[in-house]
Protein backbone atom coordinates (compact mmCIF):
# COMPACT_ATOMS: atom_id res chain seq x y z
CA UNK A 1 0.00 0.00 0.00
CA UNK A 2 1.11 3.54 -0.70
CA UNK A 3 2.20 5.57 2.33
CA UNK A 4 -0.17 8.11 3.83
CA UNK A 5 2.78 10.38 4.58
CA UNK A 6 6.16 10.52 2.88
CA UNK A 7 8.94 12.94 3.78
CA UNK A 8 11.85 13.09 1.35
CA UNK A 9 15.27 14.46 2.33
CA UNK A 10 13.81 17.40 4.28
CA UNK A 11 16.11 20.25 5.27
CA UNK A 12 15.26 23.28 7.41
CA UNK A 13 17.85 25.77 8.63
CA UNK A 14 17.77 28.76 10.94
CA UNK A 15 20.87 30.82 10.27
CA UNK A 16 23.81 28.45 10.60
CA UNK A 17 21.79 25.78 12.42
CA UNK A 18 20.37 22.82 10.50
CA UNK A 19 17.33 22.06 12.66
CA UNK A 20 16.25 19.31 10.23
CA UNK A 21 19.05 17.77 8.21
CA UNK A 22 18.05 15.42 5.40
CA UNK A 23 15.19 13.58 7.10
CA UNK A 24 13.26 10.96 5.12
CA UNK A 25 10.44 8.83 6.49
CA UNK A 26 7.09 7.24 5.69
CA UNK A 27 3.86 6.49 7.58
CA UNK A 28 1.62 3.72 6.30
CA UNK A 29 -2.18 3.48 6.48
CA UNK A 30 -3.28 2.95 10.09
CA UNK A 31 0.30 3.14 11.33
CA UNK A 32 1.64 5.28 14.17
CA UNK A 33 5.23 6.39 13.67
CA UNK A 34 7.05 7.54 16.78
CA UNK A 35 9.59 10.36 16.67
CA UNK A 36 11.74 10.55 19.77
CA UNK A 37 14.61 12.79 20.79
CA UNK A 38 15.69 15.23 23.44
CA UNK A 39 15.04 18.97 23.35
CA UNK A 40 16.79 20.51 20.35
CA UNK A 41 16.84 17.28 18.35
CA UNK A 42 14.65 18.73 15.59
CA UNK A 43 11.33 17.13 16.53
CA UNK A 44 9.31 20.36 16.72
CA UNK A 45 10.77 21.81 13.52
CA UNK A 46 10.05 18.60 11.65
CA UNK A 47 6.46 18.69 12.94
CA UNK A 48 6.02 22.31 11.86
CA UNK A 49 7.26 21.51 8.36
CA UNK A 50 4.95 18.51 8.18
CA UNK A 51 1.99 20.64 9.29
CA UNK A 52 2.86 23.32 6.67
CA UNK A 53 3.51 25.86 9.43
CA UNK A 54 7.12 26.18 8.25
CA UNK A 55 8.45 26.02 4.70
CA UNK A 56 11.47 23.71 4.35
CA UNK A 57 14.60 24.87 2.57
CA UNK A 58 14.61 21.72 0.46
CA UNK A 59 13.03 18.31 0.27
CA UNK A 60 9.39 17.36 0.06
CA UNK A 61 6.39 16.41 2.21
CA UNK A 62 3.72 14.31 0.51
CA UNK A 63 0.30 13.49 1.93
CA UNK A 64 -1.29 10.60 0.04
CA UNK A 65 1.15 11.25 -2.78
CA UNK A 66 0.44 14.97 -3.08
CA UNK A 67 3.19 17.46 -2.28
CA UNK A 68 2.37 19.97 0.46
CA UNK A 69 5.46 22.09 -0.13
CA UNK A 70 4.72 25.33 -1.91
CA UNK A 71 0.94 25.18 -1.56
CA UNK A 72 -0.84 28.49 -1.12
CA UNK A 73 -4.34 29.88 -0.74
CA UNK A 74 -7.22 27.43 -0.97
CA UNK A 75 -4.97 24.45 -1.69
CA UNK A 76 -2.99 25.12 1.49
CA UNK A 77 -6.16 25.54 3.53
CA UNK A 78 -7.55 22.26 2.19
CA UNK A 79 -4.34 20.40 2.99
CA UNK A 80 -4.38 21.69 6.56
CA UNK A 81 -7.89 20.34 7.03
CA UNK A 82 -6.53 16.87 6.27
CA UNK A 83 -3.87 17.28 8.97
CA UNK A 84 -4.90 17.55 12.61
CA UNK A 85 -2.61 18.09 15.57
CA UNK A 86 -2.92 17.67 19.33
CA UNK A 87 -0.38 19.89 21.05
CA UNK A 88 1.38 19.65 24.40
CA UNK A 89 -0.56 22.42 26.12
CA UNK A 90 -4.33 21.85 25.79
CA UNK A 91 -5.13 25.30 27.22
CA UNK A 92 -3.63 26.95 24.13
CA UNK A 93 -6.00 24.98 21.88
CA UNK A 94 -9.17 26.76 23.00
CA UNK A 95 -10.74 30.20 23.00
CA UNK A 96 -11.33 30.94 26.68
CA UNK A 97 -14.62 32.70 25.87
CA UNK A 98 -16.22 29.75 24.08
CA UNK A 99 -17.93 26.76 25.67
CA UNK A 100 -16.57 23.32 24.92
CA UNK A 101 -19.61 22.69 22.74
CA UNK A 102 -18.79 25.71 20.59
CA UNK A 103 -15.10 24.80 20.37
CA UNK A 104 -15.74 21.13 19.70
CA UNK A 105 -18.20 21.73 16.90
CA UNK A 106 -16.40 24.62 15.18
CA UNK A 107 -14.44 22.43 12.69
CA UNK A 108 -17.59 20.55 11.69
CA UNK A 109 -19.53 23.81 11.38
CA UNK A 110 -16.88 25.18 9.03
CA UNK A 111 -17.27 22.06 6.90
CA UNK A 112 -21.04 22.51 6.76
CA UNK A 113 -22.20 20.59 9.83
CA UNK A 114 -20.98 17.29 8.41
CA UNK A 115 -21.35 14.41 10.84
CA UNK A 116 -18.30 12.17 11.22
CA UNK A 117 -18.88 8.73 9.74
CA UNK A 118 -17.94 6.93 12.97
CA UNK A 119 -20.79 8.38 15.08
CA UNK A 120 -24.53 8.17 14.57
CA UNK A 121 -25.98 11.30 12.94
CA UNK A 122 -28.12 13.70 14.94
CA UNK A 123 -28.38 17.31 15.99
CA UNK A 124 -25.10 19.16 16.55
CA UNK A 125 -25.46 18.68 20.31
CA UNK A 126 -26.17 14.96 19.91
CA UNK A 127 -23.09 14.61 17.72
CA UNK A 128 -21.04 16.52 20.30
CA UNK A 129 -22.23 14.19 23.08
CA UNK A 130 -21.24 11.16 20.99
CA UNK A 131 -17.80 12.62 20.36
CA UNK A 132 -17.35 13.16 24.09
CA UNK A 133 -18.42 9.55 24.68
CA UNK A 134 -15.49 8.44 22.51
CA UNK A 135 -13.04 10.29 24.75
CA UNK A 136 -14.80 9.21 27.95
CA UNK A 137 -16.18 12.58 29.04
CA UNK A 138 -19.71 13.36 30.32
CA UNK A 139 -22.02 15.59 28.33
CA UNK A 140 -21.95 18.18 31.13
CA UNK A 141 -18.51 19.21 29.81
CA UNK A 142 -20.18 20.79 26.77
CA UNK A 143 -21.54 23.75 28.73
CA UNK A 144 -18.27 24.56 30.47
CA UNK A 145 -15.45 26.85 29.40
CA UNK A 146 -11.76 25.91 29.28
CA UNK A 147 -11.00 27.49 32.65
CA UNK A 148 -13.50 25.16 34.30
CA UNK A 149 -11.80 21.98 33.09
CA UNK A 150 -8.69 20.13 34.18
CA UNK A 151 -5.74 19.73 31.83
CA UNK A 152 -6.67 16.12 31.13
CA UNK A 153 -10.27 17.05 30.33
CA UNK A 154 -9.18 19.80 27.95
CA UNK A 155 -6.80 17.42 26.20
CA UNK A 156 -9.58 14.88 25.73
CA UNK A 157 -11.81 17.54 24.14
CA UNK A 158 -8.90 18.54 21.90
CA UNK A 159 -8.56 14.91 20.81
CA UNK A 160 -12.31 14.65 20.12
CA UNK A 161 -12.20 17.81 18.03
CA UNK A 162 -9.20 16.59 16.06
CA UNK A 163 -10.71 13.23 15.14
CA UNK A 164 -14.14 14.75 14.33
CA UNK A 165 -13.06 15.89 10.86
CA UNK A 166 -11.62 12.45 10.02
CA UNK A 167 -8.16 13.70 9.07
CA UNK A 168 -5.85 11.84 6.74
CA UNK A 169 -3.08 12.11 9.32
CA UNK A 170 -2.92 13.09 12.98
CA UNK A 171 0.13 14.55 14.67
CA UNK A 172 0.44 14.13 18.43
CA UNK A 173 3.10 16.60 19.59
CA UNK A 174 4.05 15.76 23.21
CA UNK A 175 0.31 15.28 23.99
CA UNK A 176 0.83 14.14 27.59
CA UNK A 177 3.89 16.18 28.58
CA UNK A 178 1.93 18.87 30.47
CA UNK A 179 -0.39 16.44 32.25
CA UNK A 180 -0.08 14.97 35.72
CA UNK A 181 1.67 11.60 35.75
CA UNK A 182 -1.53 9.96 37.01
CA UNK A 183 -3.41 11.23 33.93
CA UNK A 184 -0.75 10.52 31.29
CA UNK A 185 -1.33 6.77 31.13
CA UNK A 186 -5.10 7.24 30.78
CA UNK A 187 -4.68 9.61 27.85
CA UNK A 188 -2.18 7.29 26.15
CA UNK A 189 -4.58 4.35 26.57
CA UNK A 190 -7.35 6.50 25.08
CA UNK A 191 -5.20 7.44 22.07
CA UNK A 192 -4.25 3.82 21.47
CA UNK A 193 -7.90 2.76 21.66
CA UNK A 194 -9.01 5.47 19.21
CA UNK A 195 -6.17 4.68 16.84
CA UNK A 196 -7.14 1.00 16.73
CA UNK A 197 -10.88 1.66 16.56
CA UNK A 198 -10.77 4.32 13.85
CA UNK A 199 -7.71 3.14 11.91
CA UNK A 200 -5.93 6.45 12.45
CA UNK A 201 -2.61 7.14 10.73
CA UNK A 202 -0.46 9.18 13.07
CA UNK A 203 2.88 10.65 14.01
CA UNK A 204 3.58 10.60 17.75
CA UNK A 205 6.31 13.01 18.86
CA UNK A 206 7.83 12.89 22.33
CA UNK A 207 11.03 13.01 24.36
CA UNK A 208 9.50 10.18 26.44
CA UNK A 209 10.72 6.89 24.99
CA UNK A 210 8.24 4.85 27.03
CA UNK A 211 5.28 6.79 25.59
CA UNK A 212 6.65 6.46 22.06
CA UNK A 213 7.17 2.73 22.48
CA UNK A 214 3.63 2.28 23.80
CA UNK A 215 1.97 4.22 20.97
CA UNK A 216 4.09 3.42 17.93
CA UNK A 217 4.61 0.30 15.85
CA UNK A 218 7.78 1.85 14.44
CA UNK A 219 9.98 4.69 15.68
CA UNK A 220 12.79 6.96 14.55
CA UNK A 221 15.31 8.68 16.81
CA UNK A 222 16.37 12.25 16.01
CA UNK A 223 19.60 13.87 17.13
CA UNK A 224 20.88 17.17 15.80
CA UNK A 225 18.23 17.18 13.11
CA UNK A 226 19.24 13.78 11.71
CA UNK A 227 17.75 10.32 12.02
CA UNK A 228 20.28 8.26 13.95
CA UNK A 229 18.16 5.15 14.50
CA UNK A 230 14.97 3.48 13.27
CA UNK A 231 13.33 0.35 14.63
CA UNK A 232 10.10 -1.55 15.18
CA UNK A 233 8.63 -1.74 18.68
CA UNK A 234 9.99 -5.21 19.41
CA UNK A 235 13.50 -4.20 18.31
CA UNK A 236 14.02 -1.45 20.91
CA UNK A 237 16.38 -3.48 23.08
CA UNK A 238 18.28 -5.18 20.25
CA UNK A 239 22.08 -5.03 20.24
CA UNK A 240 22.07 -3.02 17.02
CA UNK A 241 20.59 0.14 18.57
CA UNK A 242 22.52 3.38 18.16
CA UNK A 243 24.49 4.55 21.21
CA UNK A 244 22.20 7.59 21.54
CA UNK A 245 19.13 5.32 21.59
CA UNK A 246 20.80 3.29 24.33
CA UNK A 247 21.26 6.52 26.32
CA UNK A 248 17.54 7.23 25.98
CA UNK A 249 16.77 3.67 27.08
CA UNK A 250 18.85 4.18 30.23
CA UNK A 251 16.90 7.36 31.00
CA UNK A 252 13.66 5.46 30.40
CA UNK A 253 14.72 2.62 32.73
CA UNK A 254 15.80 5.05 35.46
Report on the architecture of this protein.
With 254 residues, the protein is an alpha/beta fold. Helix 3 packs parallel to helix 5 (151-164) and helix 5 (151-164) runs parallel beside helix 6 (181-198). The longest helix is centred in the last third of the chain and has 18 residues, at 181-198. The strands form two sheets. The protein has a six-stranded mixed sheet with strand order 6-7-8-3-9-10, sandwiched between helices. Strands 2-1-4-5 form a four-stranded antiparallel sheet, covered by helices on one side. The protein is built from eight helices and ten strands. Helix content is 35%, strand content 24%. It starts with a strand and ends with a helix. The model has no long low-confidence stretch (mean pLDDT 92). The protein folds into two domains: 1-82 and 167-254, Rossmann fold (3-Layer(aba) Sandwich), CATH 3.40.50.300; 94-166, no CATH class. The protein has helices at 43-50, 73-81, 100-110, 124-134, 151-164, 181-198, 209-215, 243-253, and strands spanning 5-14, 17-27, 32-36, 58-63, 66-67, 83-86, 169-173, 202-206, 218-223, 226-232.
